[in-house]
Amino acid sequence: MTATTATEEPRVESKARRELRSRWLPRLAGYAVFLAVWSWASGRLVEASLLPSPWAILREMAEILDSGLFLRHFGATVQKILIGYTISPTCWAPPSESPWRAGGGTGSSATGWCSP
To answer: For labeling, which of 16, 66, 103, 114 is most exposed (least CB within 10 Å)?
Structure first.
């Protein structure tokens, strides 16, 4: 090793430590404060049935994973999302009044097929 390489290694290490302190520790502290406030507020400021604690949510998630219902719940969620995205274009303007059509349409969603 040369003398230059030996002096560069501590500088790189201190830069990594500086980045850890300046970037990651505040983020982790922010998450910790968020979880602490959430835990405190659950059951005190808001009923636990409306705002369950993060630990209750983690317990429920573990139960769902253990019971094997995760894929069923996940599939139902994806199905609802796909149905929503499939139905939503039909409630917009007909193609002749589409705001994306060149020179056509009023740009108002009130002219859509599902408007009252």
So the answer is: 103
Long-range contacts of 76-82 (CB under 8 A, 24+ apart): none
**How would you class 92 by CB atoms within 10 Å of its CB: exposed for 0-12, middle for 13-18, buried for 19 or more?**
middle
**CA neighbours within 13 Å on the CB side: how many for 74?**
7
Task: Please answer whether residues 70 and 54 qualify as being in contact, where contact means their C-beta atoms are separated by less than 8 angstroms.
Answer: no
- Condensed to tens digits (0 to 9), the pLDDT of residues 67-78 reads 999 999 999 999
Residues 39-60: tens digit of each pLDDT: 999 989 999 999 999 999 999 9
- Residue 62, token pair as written in the block: 């573990």
Q: 32 has which bridge partners?
A: none
pTM (predicted TM-score): 0.51
Rounded Cα distance, 39 and 65, in Å: 23
Q: Please give the helix or strand (H or E) that residue 112 lies within, else none.
A: none
